[in-house]
Amino acid sequence: MKQKIYFSLVNVRKYLRVDRVTGESEIVPVTNRNALTVERHMELLNLNDEEHIYLECIEDDFEKIWH
Q1: Is the pTM of this model over 0.70?
Q2: Terminal CA-CA length for the chain
Q3: How far is it, in rounded angstroms, from Cα 54 to Cα 46?
Q4: pLDDT digit string, tens, across residues 46-67
């Protein structure tokens, strides 16, 4: 019996974000399921998150996935 197995590798990035009210910063993991560039990903994160400002990507595991 032949069985096909499908899977996809999901890119996870770590972003530095700041709470808009308290000013507290934290590092959070965010999946990048659509293979967006860091710039586009941050743009969408900032448009869709009313509570936080995403400042920078501090880690991108894309290189780890392929090596």
Answers
A1: yes
A2: 32
A3: 6
A4: 999 999 999 999 999 876 655 5
